[in-house]
């Protein structure tokens, strides 16, 4: 599969602060990819570089074969949606849709109208008159209606009620099935989107920590609980992601699930073997090993 997005050794520095550090990433065509990671690790910077809002300090980015910054040919095929989208307060929502239709060649006005009607959004209002949650809803409707070849949704559900978020996710997957394209979905709630996305990119400290199919991430780690000395001996030469002390005599180790024979041996030794969620795995992979919150109160 060819790549619609190619990022090669890209760095971005803001006033001596390194936001991205020699990051490389390839995103295949017509993939729905989740971009996850803790706050401040470079997710938004990466997405703004991909959509041409900012230019890299070093390295190379190609979107649909072209560098995205200052490139109109890329701009009309990409859309970046977040909760800071700006539309002129002098325009009604209906007029905003009209401008979208005139700019984006694949604009789907029928979808926009149906979704706005479903969410009961009055098109005679201006964008500034909307509540935070309704602004987010309008923004994602605008983003979906563009049918842009590269659709970037950066924390798009900020301010939405749970029921609205769930409706949005259903609309997203239905629209993606009807109109396949490359979609990047950034979220702090991996548990909410893991059944939507095909691949997941975990960003940590300005670089890609992991880029795998979501099904692989769901099986990436496993928890082993038992007598401390025995569990540690069993885990020798294993990739241990985290250790939790339960009592003076027992622990739980979170280990990479890479050796089926070792896992079977753990069961035979009487250790408890438990699944680890994709969301928790991301936490363990990016843990700075400072201990748990309990350590604060010692």
UniProtKB/TrEMBL annotation:
Q: Which PROSITE patterns match?
A: ABC_TRANSPORTER_2
- Keyword Chaperone on entry: no
Keywords, A to Z, come to: ATP-binding, Nucleotide-binding, Transport
Q: Which domain of life is it from?
A: Bacteria
**Ranges for the ABC transporter domain?**
5-230
Which molecular-function annotations from GO does this UniProt entry contain? ATP binding; ATP hydrolysis activity
Question: InterPro entries annotated for this entry?
Answer: AAA+_ATPase, ABC_transporter-like_ATP-bd, ABC_Transporter_VariousFunc, P-loop_NTPase
Could you identify this protein by its name?
ABC transporter
Which organism does this sequence originate in? Answer: Alkalihalobacillus trypoxylicola
């Amino acid at each position: 599969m060819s790549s619609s997005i190619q990022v090669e050794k890209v760095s971005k520095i803001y006033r001596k602060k390194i936001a991205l550090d020699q990051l490389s990433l390839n995103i295949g065509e017509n993939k729905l990819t989740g971009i996850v990671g803790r706050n401040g690790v470079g997710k938004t910077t990466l997405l703004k570089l991909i959509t041409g809002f900012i230019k890299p300090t070093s390295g190379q980015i190609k979107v649909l074969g072209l560098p995205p910054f200052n490139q109109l040919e890329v701009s009309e095929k990409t859309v970046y949606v977040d909760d800071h989208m700006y539309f002129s307060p002098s325009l009604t929502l209906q007029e905003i849709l009209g401008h979208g239709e005139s700019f984006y060649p694949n604009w789907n006005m029928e979808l926009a109208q149906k979704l706005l009607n479903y969410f009961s959004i009055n098109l005679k209002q201006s964008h500034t008159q909307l509540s935070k949650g309704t602004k987010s809803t309008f923004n994602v409707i605008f983003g979906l209606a563009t049918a842009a070849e590269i659709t970037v949704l950066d924390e798009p559900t900020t301010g939405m009620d749970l029921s609205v978020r769930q409706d949005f996710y259903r609309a997203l997957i239905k629209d993606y099935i009807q109109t396949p394209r490359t979609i990047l979905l950034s979220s702090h709630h991996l548990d909410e989107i893991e059944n939507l996305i095909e691949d997941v990119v975990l960003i940590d400290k300005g670089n890609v920590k992991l880029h795998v199919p979501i099904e692989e991430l769901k099986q990436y780690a496993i928890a082993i609980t038992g007598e401390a000395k025995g569990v540690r001996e069993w885990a020798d030469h294993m990739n241990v992601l985290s250790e939790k002390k339960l009592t003076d005599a027992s622990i739980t180790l979170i280990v990479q699930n890479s050796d089926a024979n070792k896992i079977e041996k753990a069961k035979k030794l009487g250790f408890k073997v438990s699944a680890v969620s994709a969301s928790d795995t991301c936490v363990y992979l990016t843990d700075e090993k400072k201990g748990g919150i309990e350590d604060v109160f010692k």
